Amino acid sequence: MKRMITAAVLATAAISASAASASGDRCNVPAAEWQPREALQKKLEGEGWTIARIKTDDGCYEVYARDARGHRVEALVDPKSFEIVRMKSED
Questions:
Q1: What are 62-72's pLDDT values in tens digits?
Q2: Where are the alpha helices (DSSP H) in the chain?
Q3: C-alpha–C-alpha distance, residues 59 and 6, integer Å
Q4: CA dihedral in degrees (62, 41, 81, 61; nearest 10)?
Q5: Residue 63: alpha-carbon gap to chain centroid
Q6: How far apart are CA 37 and CA 42, in angstroms?
Q7: pTM of the model
């Protein structure tokens, strides 16, 4: 009986961890709290980025750009804080 309970607890923990990991790339910000795309573009351009496109994906802004070093970048950005949630860069 103890083994069954332990197995159930471990399975529940594993499911919870995978669900948290899957939602880690999503932004959970109400639409009323989003800052405008133009403000994000201005911020990133101020950091030396050249913006190709900004779109909405999974509740985040998805930015396609070149960073200050000229590398291609794809970034998910929190629409309220402009914190980068995930970023892929081509070296």
A1: 999 999 999 99
A2: 2-22, 37-46
A3: 36
A4: -20
A5: 10
A6: 9
A7: 0.71
